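G., the chain you wanted modeled:
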Amino acid sequence: MKSYVIHFIRHGAIDETLSGKYIGTTDVSLSDKGKAALRRLDFEYSYPGAKVVFTSPLKRCTQTCAVLYPELTPLVIANLSECNFGEWEGKTADELSDDDTFKKWLAGDNSVKPPRGESNANFVRRICKMFESIVEGLMKTGTTESVIVTHGGVIMTLLAVYGLPQAKPFEWTTDNGCGYSVRITPMLWQRDKVCEVFDVIPKQKSED
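Predicted structure as tokens:
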């Protein structure tokens, strides 16, 4: 029985994240330094090939696709977007330090959410439903290798839910332009909804 490989890649760097701001659904572009860093990674290392690339609709992801996979037209999926931080978008933790709701949210309290934003529980539900639909589509079409360009929070959460070895979300953090490769075995997926995390992205180029 064939297996299915999915490569998760986090988008390139944006100025707002580097300055410590919460940027979820705010649609900012890659910084010039972010684009240059992606091109450097692409030159010095090796990114996986694939016939299909899925991406978040936000510009920092679609622009990452354009740098790393210029020959492919990515399939844009709205539910690959980062968590909506509502009124906390564009603010730093220091600016929110006196907000009791923020303190509870930061501590992992699923009963609270950012004002006009998305709760942790709703975020997890949304991206898990999306990921399972992608896997189902890959199996139906027989597409054995694909790339998902998305956000750090999405990658961390999905690997914490589905990934083997099991690990906490923060243990799946990855730098901009980097990520993980997972292997899905249909029988194991249908039984337990898990996938094997077997490699990191990008890889060292082979000497030959």
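The mean pLDDT is 94.

Shout if anything looks off.
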